[in-house]
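Hypothesis: this fold can be encoded by more than one sequence.
Test: take the structure tokens below, design a sequence, compare later.
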């Protein structure tokens, strides 16, 4: 007899080691995808625009505190974003990136990660 109402959602590993973080989703929802990218590529880049930078900091801090990753590089810059509310059609926004690499303990900690 089949278990109705019970569905397993498979999350496939990302195609590239770059994850764009949005503040529309809870930062915790990105943890598994980050771990899958770390396993596949050995590193992951968390990228955000504007206020989502706070989510990138939260996620990077959580992964390093729990010994899954180590911070390799942090970058921030200004970028032009489309904006139809002014005469130039663009506005400046912050772009933020944190590059994490697998920690020495990563493989042990994620031995049964599915």
């Amino acid at each position: 007899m089949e278990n109705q109402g019970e569905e397993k959602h498979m999350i496939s590993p990302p195609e590239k080691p770059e994850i764009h973080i949005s503040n529309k989703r809870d930062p915790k929802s990105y943890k598994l995808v980050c771990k899958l990218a770390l396993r596949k590529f050995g590193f992951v880049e968390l990228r955000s625009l504007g206020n989502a930078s706070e989510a990138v900091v939260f996620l990077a801090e959580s992964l390093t505190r729990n010994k899954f990753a180590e911070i390799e590089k942090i970058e921030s810059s200004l970028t032009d974003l489309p904006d139809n509310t002014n005469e130039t059609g663009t506005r400046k926004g912050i772009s933020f990136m944190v590059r994490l690499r697998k920690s020495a303990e990563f493989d042990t900690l994620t031995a049964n990660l599915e």
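The chain has a mean pLDDT of 88. The longest strand covers residues 69-82.
Hypothesis status: open.
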